[in-house]
Structures are given as C-alpha cells and as structure tokens.
Design a protein that fits this description.
The complex is a heterotrimer of chains A (341), B (344) and C (384). Chain A has 341 residues and is mainly alpha-helical. In chain A, 74% of the residues lie in helices and 0% in strands. Classes of the chains: A mainly alpha (341), B mainly alpha (344), C alpha/beta (384). Chains in contact: A-B, A-C, B-C.
Chain lengths: 341, 344, 384
C-alpha cells in the first residue's frame, strides 16, 4: 500500500511539478488575452501619468507582443510584478491583500462547512419531502442571488439591523498594532488585543456570510447527492443494526463517507469564492485582493492598472490550482482506499 | 441484446415521459419549468412588440421622479423620471439572449472539443496527441476563475456588450470539455458501442449515432443550469461597470443595478435596486430549479433515491467508487465547479 | 413454560412502487424459542430476506409498509415501536449478519473502531447509560440478558471461562479493557492473529475475514436473537465452507435464538432445528428439519428438494420446477403454487390452504409440529 508519509510527500512534489506548466500557461494566456487590442491604452492614462510614462508606454505597446511578453516574464521571474500608472508597485499591494482575502475565504468556507453540510444531510434524509424542498430553495436562492445584490442588501439593511459593521477590517484604520500577517483577526490575536479581536471578528461576519450564502449550494448540493448515494449502502444498514441512533448513523457512518466527494468539490469551489470576493470586498471595503482586482480592472470608473490586473489573474489562477491540490490531498486523507502512488 | 440498455434514463424515453415524471414528483422543478416558460414567453412578446407589455420607453420621462411602486409604475420610477419596470422588461430579451448565446457557444465549442478529446483518446495516434493538447489547454483555462479572466479580457477589448460577450465566450467553454469528455469516456466502452464497432459500423457513425445521443442529455440539463449562471456573471461584469452603459436605449440588468446602487439612493428608493435585482434573481432561480431537478434524475447517485427500480426491492447496492486521486471528475463535480466559478 | 424470544403473527409486508403494490410477505407466522435455530429457505424473491429485515424493522418505510401482523420480541411488539425506539432493540436485542460482507463494514473506519463501537453500545446499555442514546424509553429491560430458559444466558456461554467473563462485564472502563474485549470476540470467530488486523481498514481484508468480523461484531453485542441473512452466499465456495463450519460451531457455543435465512437447503439442513419453506411470500411448510426434508408434505418443498444438487440426496435426477415464480403484484388466486403444481385442482384455485398440522402432533411443546399449507398433503409423493 502506498500510504506512508513518504508516499504522500512524493505525491505532493509530483503535483507541484505538474503545476509549473499550468502556471506558465496561465501567465501566457493572461498576457495574450489582456494585450489583444491595446490601441488607445496609453492615451487613456493621459491625465494621470506624466508624458514620459506615456512615451514609455507607447514604445512598449509598439513592440511585438512576444517581445513584450519576454520583458514581462523576465521581470516576473526576478520578482518584479510591475507597477500601476501612478507608479505604485504591484507586489507589495498583493502581499498585503492576499492574506486578507485568504482570511475572508476561509471564514466563508468555515460557514459553508458548518451550515451547508448539515443542511445537505437533512435534505438527503428527508429526500423528496418538505425539508428537502426547503433546503433546495435555500441553496438555489443563494445561487440565484447576484453577489453584488446580496452584498449591497446585507450592507445596507442587514448590517445596520444586526448592529454589525459593514466596512473595513477594523473600526479604526489602521489599528494600533503591527499587522504581521494582514489577516485581521489573527493580527489582533497576535497583538493580544481582545477588544480589537472582537472588533475584527465583527467586521468579518457580514462579508463572510454573504460569500458563504452565495456559494452554499456547492457544499449542500454535493453533500445531499453523496448522502443519497451512501444511505442505501450495506454499511449504513450494519451501523443501524448495531443499535446506533439515527443521529450517529447519519453523522458518523454515512457522512464520514459522503464527505470524501464533498471535500473534492469544496476544493473546486475556490474559484467561485475568489470570484465572489471581487464584488464583496469592494462593497464591504475589505482590503483584499478582490478589492484590488476591482480597482485594477477599472471597476467603478477607476483607472485601469494593467500590471495589477495581470498579477491578480495570475494570483487567482494559482490559488485555484493550489486549492485543488489541497482538496486532492484531503481526499486521500479521508478515503483510506486511495493509494498515493 | 443488440442495443443494450443505456446507463441512465433518457429524456427521450416515451416522448419526454421522464421529464414529465420529474416535474410531477418534484413541485420545485415544476415551479421552475412554469417560470422558465413564462419568462421565455415574455421575452418573445417584448421582442416582437414591446407595447403589449411595456408601458413606457427606455428613456421616456414619465413625469414622476423617485415615485414609489404603484399600479402605474410597478417598480416605481428613478431619479431621471424613467419607469423602472419598463427598463427591466426591455432588458429581459437582451439578458436572456446573452445567457442562451454564451451557454450555447460554450456548448458548441466545449462540447465539440470534449467529444474529440474523449473519442479519439488512443495514445500514440494523431487523435491522441490532439486529445492530450485539448485537455492541457482545458486544464489551464479551468484554473482561471472565469469572472476574473472575463473582466480582464473585457477591459483589454474595451467597454461594451460586444467585448463582454467575446470575453465570456473565451472563458466559458472549458467546463463543457471536461463534462463531455467524461461522458464520452463513460459511454464509449459500453457493450453496445463495442458491439456496434465489432459489426463494422464506422467510427463517425458510432460517434454520431451512439455516443452523441447518450452525451446529449446530461449536457442539455447542464446547459439549462448554465444559462442562469451566465446571467449572474454577465450582470456582475455589468455591475463592475465594464459591460453596458445605463441609462441608455438598451437597458441591461447588471448595469441598471450598478447605476442605481452607485447613485446611493438604496436606503431611500430601494425599488430602484430591487427591480432589476429581483428580475435577475427570479430568472436565475427559475432555470436553476428546473435544471437542479433534472440533474437529480440524471445523476446516478441521486436518481436511485427517487426513481426506484421496478423490481421493488432495496435499491441495488453498489460498491462506493473509489475515485483515483486526480482522476476524472464526475459530471456533478465539474458542474459544481462551474457554478462555483461563476456564481459571482 | 418457555416464552418464545420472537413471536411473529400474521405478518404482511407490502411494497409500493409507483402505482404498483405487491405483497412481498403475506400472513407469515412463526415462533423462535431460546436456543433454537430456525431456518427459512426459498428461491430468490420469495420474501425470505424481506422477512429477515422486517423483524428488526430494517426495511425502508416507504416503499415497504408493514400492512398487518405483530412481531413480538421479548414481550414488545416491534411493529408498534417508534423510529426513535428502534435502535434500542437492535444490536443488543436483535443482531444481524448480512449477505454482503464485502460492503457491510464501513470502509472509512478501522476494524478496531467498528468492533469497539459495538461493544461500547452493549456496555453502555449493560451499565444502564441507555439515556445517553436518544432512543427514548427502553422497550424492555436490558438487565435481563435473555429470557432465562433452559439454557444458560448467552453471556456466560460465549466467553470461554464463564466466571471470569462475568467479572469482566462490569469493568470495561479503560481502553486496554475494551481492546481485550475486542480481541476476545475476534478470537471467538477463529481469527488467529487478531492484534494484526485491529488497525486495518476493511478493504485490506479478504471477504471471509470481513464476514468473520461482522459475525464477531454481531455476537459482541450479545443479542438474544441473531438473524443470519444468507451469511455465506456471497463468499467463494471454499470460504463458504469455512464460515459455515464456524457458524455451526458458534451456534453450539452461543445458545442464542437464531433465524437462519438461506436459499441453500444443505446449509439449512446442517444448521437449523426447524425450517420454514417460503414460496411467493408465504410459508408453505414448516416443521422440524428432519421431518420437512425427509418427509415433505408440500409439493413445492418436494420440488425444491428434487431440484437441489445431489450432494444432499442419494440419487434421482436433478430436475427444475416447471413454470415461473409468480409476479407478486398479481399473485395467483388461492394457493400461490397451483399454476406450477402437479397436484393442483379446482379447490387450489378457489382458496388459499391454511398452514395445517400434518402427521402426528408433537408432544414436546418447544418443538413445532410439522405443518403444511396444502389441501392434499397426503398425496405428495415420498422422496425417491
């Protein structure tokens, strides 16, 4: 059996190696698609950038696209992610924004797991009856709600009604301590500041809830489908026959196996959660990579930040690939039949 | 048995009998079906003759500014005195058309590539090489969150409906490749396909007659769900402000929402935001309810719970499939991934 | 006078599938007394497995419904129990060994965890922690292990060295003691090196091994009634023989009441004390194994014996039963066997024959008399 720790390490290394061509492809495609048609891009920068920048821009744009790519890629390999028109370098921004987004996504994922999975079990258990219909309407509603509508409604009506803050990471910005990790709750805990921990937590609730609600269908539907698959199996019947109560039969014996597929799908969800952050972070003023993406792409009439936009796409794509890898590893951990080799 | 039983019930069985069975046993799907029918019908009427259903023009001053919902103005009027309901209705054909067009283009591009990648996957042949390169490219595209890539492409092409459509078309197909390829691989080694091949039926004929027919139904179901997803994504791009302009002669829901929301009046005049918001919500929910119910029936896992075998005994127990790590995703996983990827 | 562990009266089970309704089990009555082994034989689809699963209420309801009848287990009618009470009956009251050992163990848990879980359930109930299971009120008193009949209580006989076992019973507190208890039951099912398999997952074990573990798990809860639903059918022939030998040895050791369901006449002949022959949802013949198999009084039993491979009888041609098993959604009128029966006449089509005593009535109360549901039991020809 190839299930020793060394097999796992080899597996992870192999998968990481496979990442390299995918990432290279991602960079090439992103660069190519964003440079499809850039005739007036330099003039668009006119009032904001100096003449020198625009001249530089024009000479760059007039180069063959392969040449441009080579320059960009070489810079990237040297850790230079470029800069916005106004000269703000991209890399430091991403380095502080990414952790904030990871925090938001993890919080949403947590809600999806603790709410969405039990709902899926309930739906499967009452397959075809009213509880099932109710759960399905719930998750399909999340699915059908445009992210911005959910976010705006939550920010305007739900937040004030519940007394929850609807913008930023803390009530005072910046907080009176060093942000080591740029994850708001974690930083407050590291600083040992209880009041700010609670504050950061309160600020996290609404955006995470909206993000989770929009994507709830994924966890719930998958759990429901896997539970419906598992429930008629022999070992569930044996568990029942042992004298276990229905609660343990469902949540220990059946769910433990249903989770194997749900985990895989939650990994694939990463893309959806990240897409959701673009609008949610903008609405809730969350200083994450989604907000940076919104600004870089020129959302709300802001200036296009080309290097920023490319960097964001690359970071998002990498995040998706890494999330899939983590899901694969979890799959193997949950299912003892999986052989790492 | 020459024509062995297909692996799942087919929509074509007994002239849409299965569809009817789902709708009958599942009130939610029936509701979705009725809603979809009403929405499509409304869109057709609005396209043919807007005056039948739409009281005002897109940019017609009604004389009332920020008027609340009433019999005259179902969704009220906005700050310029335009009727919100009329604009929502006039946007319906465009938004629905975008949903069908993008999902349809993805169906053809992705479906075609998936068919090729699945059917000609013999290693060492030209087809095999093509198949491998298609899958590599698909893998790369699958790792983009489609909204982000679409946003970036739209921005590079310039603001407007056209660039947004091109951007969405570029990003939307890869899920269909995975989906169709998985289905083809599942079908092509079934006994009746082997039997057809053994009896000298040509590869193309097998592809069209046997494989395509079996692949079609899960794809159509998925397509139903996907229309809603496209709508949500398109309106998100509209909301970010890189797709359509509003107000204008041709309204669009996402742009309407962005405009009304940014005008900051949501606290005071919530109907302005709720009008297009509810329109998107109801349209997407209708397609999702229908598609979700259909998928329940086509998914071999959930199907067993609802459609019991006529033998009447316990549903046959199967060994839980141990998916090899990193192996083919099931239809549902791919589908869920897409819905996740685009539910923004 | 001894009370039966299980007393089934007039049990009828229907399945509703779409618009169709059919009776999988019709008007079945039987008693199982402490320490007795009752076999049920019949062809596939005759309802024997449905009967076995219906006793601990394991059938999914719907599509199955218990139309009428009672299933009295140690004084409690299981048909009337609520879903919340059912877990209290299962495991420690009624244990079950299933047909499919390959899938009956949970693939995600180690052997030890699954064994220990069963023992923990039994232990908690022994100790009176029953309330911690959300099962509602106890349907019956668990402090009485089994109805105290002629035989010893189950507890003392299964664990080698009765006195020591009794001391063990109240002291399963530490992990080591649980482990020892798990090992004890694995040894009981003749697993030579039980320590080696504790940490393994089910997919790492052979089919025969898995079935032994299932048997150990069922026995470790010390049930008063054990239902074995074709425990050997899904195994390889050589493994079948081993498991069957084990079952036979355990039957002697355990002294629990056992309901042994099988399509294999030979298996029933070797294990059971009494046998019921089922056809199309009904018990058509019932009685002590020797009487039924050597002197069948129902034409179906007769045909079944004739169709069995010659391993179990001396000679005679191997024949098949003419006709087909009836469609239970539209069963034949009267005696359900009449379309295939060589003795059938008009009376058989008109009404259903009762399960009446044939031959001499048994004097020993605990042993059931030989009964047959045939109007003409005397005309059934003797075996060649």
């Amino acid at each position: 059996m190839g299930r020793s720790p060394s097999d796992l390490i080899v597996f992870v290394l192999k998968r990481l190696l496979q990442l390299i061509p995918v990432l290279f492809g991602v960079i090439v495609l992103t660069f190519f698609f964003t440079h499809l048609d850039l005739t007036d891009i330099c003039n668009a920068w006119y009032p904001h950038a100096g003449i020198a920048t625009i001249r530089h821009c024009e000479t760059t744009i007039n180069q063959p696209i392969a040449q441009q790519f080579l320059t960009y890629f070489t810079n990237l390999l040297h850790g230079n992610w470029g800069a916005s028109v106004l000269g703000d370098p991209v890399y430091p921004k991403i380095a502080t924004a990414l952790p904030a987004t990871v925090e938001l996504v993890l919080a949403a994922l947590f809600l999806m797991v603790v709410i969405g999975i039990p709902l899926g079990v309930v739906a499967a258990q009452s397959g075809g009856r009213w509880a099932d219909h109710l759960v399905r309407v719930f998750y399909l509603s999340g699915w059908a709600t445009p992210t911005y509508l959910g976010a705006v409604l939550a920010a305007v009506f739900l937040g004030p009604a519940l007394g929850l803050p609807t913008g930023g990471e803390y009530s005072t910005n910046p907080p009176p301590f060093t942000q080591w990790t740029h994850m708001s709750v974690l930083d407050a805990i590291l600083a040992g500041n209880l009041a700010y921990t609670a504050d950061a937590f309160a600020h996290l609730v609404l955006p995470a809830t909206v993000l989770a609600f929009i994507n709830m269908g994924i966890a719930t539907r998958m759990t429901r489908a896997s539970m419906l698959e598992v429930l008629p199996l022999d070992y569930v019947r044996s568990a029942r026959m042992k004298g276990l109560t229905e609660f343990w039969v469902l949540y220990k014996h059946a769910l433990r196996n249903a989770l194997i597929t749900t985990t895989t799908v939650l990994g694939i969800t990463a893309g959806g959660l990240l897409s959701g952050t673009v609008v949610i972070e903008e609405v809730f003023a969350w200083p994450g990579i989604g907000q940076y993406a919104y600004a870089s792409i020129g959302g709300g009439g802001s200036q296009l930040n080309f290097d920023g936009a490319i960097a964001v796409v690359i970071v998002f794509a990498t995040a998706v690939v890494v999330a899939n890898l983590i899901a694969d590893i979890l799959y193997g951990v949950l299912d003892p039949r999986v052989d790492w080799r | 048995m020459t024509e062995a039983a297909p692996k799942r019930p087919r929509l074509s069985d007994g002239s849409l009998g299965v569809l009817w069975r789902v709708l009958r046993t599942n009130p939610l799907s029936l509701g979705g079906f009725v809603l979809v029918a009403v929405i499509v019908l409304t869109a057709l009427v609005v396209t043919v003759d807007p005056r039948l259903l739409v009281p005002y023009g897109a940019q017609q001053f009604t004389g009332a500014i920020h008027a609340g919902p009433s019999a005259h103005h179902l969704f009220g009027t906005d700050g310029t005195g335009y009727d919100v309901f009329s604009n929502v209705m006039l946007a319906l054909p465009l938004d629905l058309g975008i949903g069908v067009a993008i999902a349809g283009s993805a169906l053809f591009i992705g479906g075609g590539l998936g068919l090729i990648a699945g059917f000609f996957d013999t290693p060492g042949t030209v087809g095999g090489a093509i198949s491998v390169s298609i899958m590599r490219l698909t893998d790369i595209f699958l790792s983009f969150p489609s909204l982000i890539l679409a946003l970036a492409i739209t921005r590079a092409l310039g603001i407007g409906v056209g660039p947004t459509l091109i951007a969405l078309a570029i990003t939307w197909w890869p899920f269909y490749v995975r989906l169709v390829r998985g289905e083809v691989l599942a079908v092509k080694h079934l006994p009746y396909v082997t039997a057809a091949r053994a009896s000298g039926v040509s590869e193309w004929r097998i592809l069209i007659r046997h494989v395509l027919r079996n692949v079609l139904e899960p794809i159509v179901v998925y397509f139903t769900l996907d229309i809603g997803t496209v709508l949500v994504t398109y309106s998100t791009i509209g909301f970010i402000g890189v797709a359509s302009k509003y107000p204008g002669p041709q309204p669009e829901w996402g742009a309407m929402l962005a405009f009304y929301q940014s005008s900051g009046a949501i606290n005071v005049y919530p109907w302005e935001v709720l009008g297009p918001g509810v329109a998107i919500f109801v349209t997407v929910l209708a397609f999702s309810l229908l598609g979700d119910g259909l998928r329940d029936l086509l998914d071999p896992r959930t199907r067993r719970a609802f459609v019991r075998s006529s033998a009447g005994h316990d549903p046959p127990a199967e060994t839980p499939s141990a998916l090899p790590s990193g192996g083919e995703a099931t239809t549902d996983e791919v589908a869920m991934g897409r819905e996740g990827g685009a539910a923004a | 006078m001894t009370e039966p562990v299980l007393d089934v009266q007039g049990l009828t089970i229907t399945y509703t599938v779409g618009a169709g309704v059919f009776q999988a089990v019709s008007d079945v009555s039987m008693q199982i007394y402490p320490g007795r082994v009752v076999g049920i034989v019949g062809e596939t689809g005759c309802g024997k497995s449905t009967l076995g699963k219906a006793i601990p209420r394991l059938l999914p309801e719907p599509p199955a419904t218990i139309g009428s009848g009672t299933v009295v287990f140690r004084g409690t009618d299981l048909v009337r129990l609520t879903k919340r009470q059912l877990p209290m009956v299962r495991g420690t009251g009624i244990g079950m060994i299933f047909q499919e050992p390959l899938n009956s163990l949970n693939p995600a848990f180690r052997v030890y965890d699954q064994m220990a879980e069963a023992i923990r359930i039994r232990h908690y109930r022994d100790m009176g922690y029953v309330k911690s299971f959300r099962g509602g009120s106890m349907p019956f008193d668990y402090s009485v292990r089994s109805t105290p009949p002629v035989t010893n209580p189950v507890t003392k006989s299964i664990v080698p060295g009765g006195a020591a076992a009794e001391a063990v019973e109240d002291k399963l507190r530490t992990r080591a003691e649980f482990r020892e208890e798990v090992l004890r039951y694995l040894r009981l099912v003749r697993i030579n090196d039980p320590e080696a398999i504790l940490g393994l997952y089910p997919h790492e074990l052979s089919g025969g091994m898995r079935q032994r573990i299932m048997i150990a798990m069922a026995l470790s809860e010390r049930p008063s009634l054990l239902i074995a639903d074709e425990p050997t059918s899904a195994l390889d022939v050589t493994i079948q023989a081993q498991v069957l030998t084990l079952m036979k040895e355990l039957i002697d050791e355990v002294k629990a009441a056992i309901l042994f369901i099988s399509h294999d006449l030979g298996v029933i002949a070797e294990t059971a004390d009494e046998v019921g022959v089922m056809y199309a949802g009904r018990i058509v013949e019932y009685g002590p194994v020797a009487d039924v198999f050597l002197n069948p009084r129902h034409p179906y039993t007769k045909a079944l014996l004739r169709a069995a491979p010659s391993r179990y009888k001396s000679d005679g041609p191997l024949s098949s039963i003419p006709g087909t098993v009836p469609n239970l959604s539209r069963p034949p009128s009267g005696c359900r066997f009449h379309p295939r029966c060589p003795l059938a006449r008009d009376a058989c089509k008109a009404s259903s024959p009762p399960l009446a005593i044939v031959g001499a009535e048994s004097k020993v109360e605990i042993v059931a008399s030989h009964r047959s549901a045939c109007f003409f039991p005397e005309e059934v020809p003797n075996l060649p």
